[in-house]
Design goal:
With 356 residues, the chain is of the alpha/beta class. It is built from 16 helices and 7 strands. The N and C termini lie close together (8 Å).
């Protein structure tokens, strides 16, 4: 995962959403797992066996908790214009399921879209997909995530072998950072060359439901950070490499109770969502007979908020499907707090070793 500060924040937010969704002790332990607290020796882990994900590693449910099947989910993917696969970035089973779903639902109308690549490297991704540049130069020039080889390479190579487009969907990090520091309107000062990598400006504001969710997560994170400051074991979090690369001023701003700081953080998060939605919409406008599978951190699409909302603004007629994959220490139990996270909720075995 990228060491960029805001990428780290969203990873934290994805984990912290589980805390905000339930008061159960087991959910709190799940969020700790997502925060890599296994490095502190706070979670017992089971080694992941070799081979792809099996039905022993996951269970599929519909939005209200009725048991479903892989075959039913694949049929729904084939009948949807856009399918969102919301993951926890360290969930090994989720990554294996993504590859499986991509393969099982594939035909020549299906394109892949990824949060993990930014729009300004689309041409580099295209050059690799067309066989013009080698993988070494692709990974360097496209600023691939550190876990690319273990978690996302299989998706890219599957499409490359079949000559199927892959969308570099995310906003460039430098512009997300601009919004976090200077506010949403700062983007208007960009050159036309820079604006081409973003959705039409000004991009839409987040919905009230999304704002409420984001605020709850920020408050939960602040509470966790405040608690960690008085807990010796939790202080070991600062040994994590990504957190060591976060500037102290950024930490203070993230914890700031001031509304202005919150609004900038929300606007930066919202830029990610609207940018990914715009990238998908732009592809479908050029290829109206195509459908898309988009892989993203689950916070971007939980409860069909975020990216799906923006995509509906850009292309209202689309049939969207949201799949949320949740690593759970209570696996395979479906809990009340999971209802509505997606059209389908896939619970994965949270006791397995993280992918990175």
């Amino acid at each position: 995962m990228k060491s960029d500060y805001f990428q780290r924040v969203i990873f934290v937010l994805s984990a912290m959403f589980i805390i905000a969704s339930s008061n159960s002790d087991s959910l709190h332990k799940e969020s700790a797992s997502a925060l890599d607290l296994d490095k502190l020796g706070l979670n017992e882990k089971t080694e992941l066996s070799e081979g792809s994900a099996t039905s022993a590693d996951y269970r599929i449910f519909d939005s209200v908790g009725n048991v479903s099947t892989l075959e039913e989910l694949i049929t729904e993917i084939r009948n949807s214009d856009v399918t969102f696969l919301g993951e926890t970035h360290t969930d090994t089973v989720a990554h294996e399921l993504e590859a499986l779903l991509l393969e099982k639902s594939w035909d020549d109308r299906q394109s892949l879209s990824l949060e993990m690549f930014e729009s300004d490297v689309q041409f580099v991704l295209n050059e690799y997909m067309e066989g013009l540049i080698n993988e070494e130069h692709f990974l360097k020039s496209a600023r691939s995530w550190n876990n690319y080889e273990s978690d996302y390479r299989e998706l890219i190579e599957f499409n490359k072998e079949r000559g199927v487009p892959v969308i570099a969907a995310n906003a460039p990090r430098r512009y997300v950072n601009m919004v976090r520091r200077l506010g949403k309107d700062s983007l208007l000062a960009l050159s036309e060359e820079g604006k081409q990598f973003l959705p039409p400006l000004p991009y839409p504001d987040a919905s009230p439901e999304y704002v409420n969710k984001f605020r709850a997560i920020m408050l939960a994170h602040q509470s966790m950070v405040n608690g960690a400051s008085t807990n010796q074991e939790a202080n070991n979090l600062h040994e994590d490499k990504d957190l060591n690369q976060t500037e102290s001023s950024e930490i203070e701003e993230f914890n700031s109770p001031h509304e202005e700081a919150f609004e900038r953080m929300l606007a930066a998060q919202n830029l990610w969502d609207s940018s990914m939605a715009w990238s998908i919409a732009s592809h479908l406008k050029r290829n109206p007979k195509n459908r898309v599978i988009h892989v993203n951190g689950s916070f971007h699409t939980d409860f069909s908020l975020g990216i799906p909302e923006h995509l509906k603004n850009y292309l209202p007629h689309l049939n969207l499907l949201t799949v949320t994959m949740v690593p759970s220490l209570d696996y395979p139990s479906f809990r009340e707090s999971m209802k509505g996270l997606g059209d389908y909720i896939i619970i994965t075995d949270g006791t397995l070793e993280p992918s990175h």
